[in-house]
Amino acid sequence: MISLLMKKKAIFSVILITIAAVTSFTLVNFIFSDVAEAGSELKFSAQESIFVSSVEEASKIAGFQVATPNSELTTFADSELKYSIDVNQLVQLGTKPAPRPVGQSWELADGSMVRLLQGPGLQLPNIGEPIKIGGTIGEKIFFEAEDYMPSRIALYWTNGDIGYSLFGTLTDSISEEILISIADSVKVR
Q: How far apart are CA 13 and CA 124, in angstroms?
């Protein structure tokens, strides 16, 4: 199945990028829906992402210290690795400042990808299997392979008031164990 996907690499890459964007958008809207106080009318919607060139720049815009995985785990021995970092712009109806989650993406030449999303107030979705990540109990959700998509895993955990989501494809380049190791290594550096 994976070899068939790799033969259709262009389609596969477009589908992965689209899924990563939709996943981030959905997670921001779904997870931040719990940030508002009970009974309030605060609503969030993602408007756009600002692409930045460094973790320091993302931290300044987002208003919190952005954590990163161990860089040795995200090289994937891939000379054509594409890395990007973005700060999501959220529009909030109400008076409280809107959270500004930060996304980091790694795209490999074979179309495999990993996306880390983090921000204050992100909550566990409470629909996954319990898993220990970074010393806390988080959640793991497995997505079966379908059509041009390989299997995928999403990991969720919190550290203080910052919530994290790591989403990745399961291919010859990226295994579940690698994704869990990447999640375990995420910290402010």
A: 28
In this structure, what token pair is assigned to residue 127? Answer: 């629909």
Instruction: Specify the 3-state DSSP secondary structure of 44.
Output: strand
Mean pLDDT, the chain, integer = 80
% helix / strand / coil in the chain, to the nearest 5? 30, 35, 35
69, 186 contact by CB (below 8 A):
yes
Q: Are 118 and 93 in contact (CB under 8 A)?
A: no
**Residue 73, CA distances (Å) to 4, 24, 117, 139, 153 in order:** 26, 22, 17, 21, 17
In the block, residue with structure tokens 């930045």: 52
| First and final C-alpha spacing in the chain | 38
Instruction: Report the predicted TM-score, pTM, of the whole model to 2 decimal places.
Output: 0.76
pLDDT tens for residues 61-104? 999 999 999 999 998 877 788 999 999 876 655 656 667 899 99
d(CA 32, CA 121): 7
| Length reported for the chain | 189
For the beta carbon of residue 184, count every other beta carbon within 10 angstroms: 18
Report yes or no: 46 and 167 within 8 Å, Cβ to Cβ. Answer: no
Confidence of residue 45 (pLDDT cuts 50, 70, 90): low
